[in-house]
Write the structure tokens for this entry.
Amino acid sequence: HIHKLATERGIARVFALTDVGRYREHNEDTFLVADLTAGTSLDFANGYHEITADPHGLLFLVADGMGGAASGELASSMAGSLVLEALRETWKPADPSPEAFAAALRDATLLANARIHQHARENPEHRGMGTTATIAGLLGDRLFMVQVGDSRAYMVRSGDVQQLTKDQSLMQRLVEAGELTAEEAAAFVSRLKKEKRYLRDVY
């Protein structure tokens, strides 16, 4: 996942890492960082990058797939590639306004969602697949965010951590409706994850 993004005088220092964890055999996560001037994603095999936040913008994406190992991995990978592909085609420097950039991010996300849904519908072996997506676009000194699902984005500043996104999940809806407290929802999710790990160990 993208761990830290800090801007200073137009420079973005970007660190990115993902790990399969201790309980799964397949990594269903995808991250992507791209320079939208070149339209290419960056490789983090050799560490972090320092990128100039040029007028055409930078793209940051984290996606957590679901629907089984093969399906989840495919869905999150499609989210990354489709969002970047759509921005290559639609985000033009002729209109570099913040409003146009926000609209391009929104439209790219909607297109990726439609294409993933279509693929799942047309391929029974991937039926039910899906992915979260938390997408940030840096244009000048403004950061724009798009979120689908419950992959969270945080801002870390001067030692303080602030959650920027709100989970789009059943648990969050129950909390907002007053049916559960935030603590009860967190405990339920933790218990559910433990039960899933136990079932995998048994079977």
